[in-house]
Amino acid sequence: MAETELTEAEAQGVRYAQELEGHLGWLDAFTPAALAVLAVASGVYTYLGVSSLLDDNGALSFFAAMAYSIAVSVGIFVFWSYLMRLLPAVRGAGARIGLVLSMFLGSAAIIAMSSWLNAAALAGAAAVEQHLARTVQDYQSALERANTISLSAQGLERDIARARQSFEDLSEQEATGELSGLAGRGAVFRLLRQKSEELQGLETQISSQAPLVRAAFEEGNLILSRMRALTVEPGPVVARSVLFAEEAVRLSGVITTLRQLSVAPLVARAAQDLSASVVLPEVETLRGEQQATVTSVLNVLGQRADTLRTAAEGVMAMPPAPDTAYTPISTADAVILYAENFVPSWAGAIAIDLLPMVLVFIVAITQAAIRSGRGRATVEDTLTMAEFRAALSAVRDVENALHRAPDGTAAPPGNVKPFKAASDE
């Protein structure tokens, strides 16, 4: 018998430990197969992710992607198999901490070589579509901004029309003598008519560009409609991206056209010339009344020019349309760029690689519970009845083999010393 009897609580702990060992034995029967399935699944998605990164679709690219995915599958299976066996078995704190650190380091390596490729395979097409949709929004903002600036510049036509009308009214007053007191079509009349005609030409030029602005904006909206359709159409996203890029180039040209159709710089230059380019006869030929009228007209010209220039500079000071360009992107890059929009896909891609970590912790906790349940029990205390009978049978077989006669026949029964169990002594 053992030197110290186990207490009732210790005996229950032994039975508890034996029960847990039985469960672990049953689980060990299929755990390697489960790890292999997870490793193969991760390898398949890794293959799809690597294939999306390779430009060539030939045999060499196929074997390269296949070799990488097989290496990932084998690495994942071996890594978690090591930890599944070793981490629960170690007892020292230093060894356990070292293995835990190794597990986290290996997990980071698995994420770096596999998980992001798995995410690319799971959500790569959707991420590229997200990139296309985001690009459409940028182009729409640029188009609307360019159109707003062009329409604001077209609005300067009303200011020019008011200035032109005021000069025409003054010239009519000068022709009837109401302005300078001398009826006729003299220097003052010609000056007013000259500026009125300059503004009339500028007004006509601005009016002629209004249909161009409208046509360019309508064309841009049509291109945007086609681009939106390409983001949601069924079919491979790579082929749609090519068509999307072609439409993006056309839309960039339309936005550039709208920028060039803005007449604000033209109005600013015309306003500057309005008061600067004045042709007058010699001062000596002008009468006193006409001289005073010319001076007043020049002041009015300066005021109108300042008003037009201020309005044009206000339009020119508006924030310009942002420069937008479509940049093709791979599925892997798209998944990383728009990671916040595909959290479930990232979670699934990482979980398929790191799920065995949970199993490692489960086995480690269970092994610790088994060791705690055994306590100070010895091997004899943990033997089951079946194990004890098997041990007795093995001992009898050994004794029979040792006491056989030289010729191979069994020794007489009296010469065989019977085996006594420790409990019979």
From TrEMBL:
Transmembrane segments: 25-48, 60-83, 95-117, 346-366
Segments for region (Disordered): 403-425
Keywords noted in UniProt: Membrane, Transmembrane, Transmembrane helix
Protein name from the UniProt record: Uncharacterized protein
Originating species: Candidatus Rhodobacter oscarellae
